[in-house]
Write a structure and sequence with these properties.
six-stranded mixed sheet, phosphatase activity
Length: 192
């Protein structure tokens, strides 16, 4: 069975760090963009070919892929929509409501926001559309976790054991088929 490399990179640090950034369309910092460029360079230096690049349509991811030479924009790689919480600091929210969301994001989504299952379905469609060639996707923490759930079989709680700082890269070997399955081949944290 044929396989291909898939690299999932979290966008660089946004200009609004520490907030619940879902649909909020803010820029990445110059240092955040530079960190993504460095990470992509490390892939190349380690012999990893990247034939295709994709990005979320949100500015903080899109700017990073543009700095890498551009790529196809796919809104299915957007972060989870935090609805009424979007753009706010977690400490400013109703802590009981936030705890219910973290414990069961399907039963208790953010007000007017997206459920975990909706994010997983959206990312599943995006994964199915990826060509079977080495691909780099610049996206967000939520979609990376959803992809690990779908491709590797990790449950919702298990995907949170991965620390995904800005500019981190998760590399996978993905096997063709329906559904696609994968093995994690590398996790490179952000560069300082």
């Amino acid at each position: 069975m044929r396989s291909f490399a898939l690299h999932l990179m979290r966008h660089g640090e946004p200009v609004l760090p520490g907030r619940m950034l879902g649909r909020t369309d803010c820029a990445a910092t110059p240092a955040g963009i530079a960190a993504c460029v460095t990470q992509a360079g490390r892939l190349t230096e380690s012999g990893q070919e990247v034939a295709h690049r994709l990005s979320s349509d949100l500015r903080r991811a899109r700017e990073c892929v543009e700095a890498l030479g551009g790529g196809e924009i796919d809104p299915r790689w957007r972060e989870l929509d935090f609805g009424g919480w979007d753009g706010q600091f977690a400490r400013e929210l109703d802590q009981d409501a936030l705890a219910r969301f973290w414990n069961d994001p399907d039963a208790f989504p953010p007000p007017s926001g997206e459920t975990w299952s909706a994010l997983v379905a959206r990312v599943g469609e995006a994964l199915a559309a990826i060509p079977t060639e080495p691909t780099l996707v610049v996206t967000h923490g939520g979609p990376i976790r959803a992809a690990l759930h779908l491709l590797c079989g990790f449950d919702r709680e298990q995907v949170w054991v991965f620390d995904l700082p800005y500019a981190a890269v998760v590399s996978l070997r993905v096997w063709e088929g329906s559904p696609r399955r994968a093995q994690v081949t590398g996790l490179v944290p952000c560069v300082a």
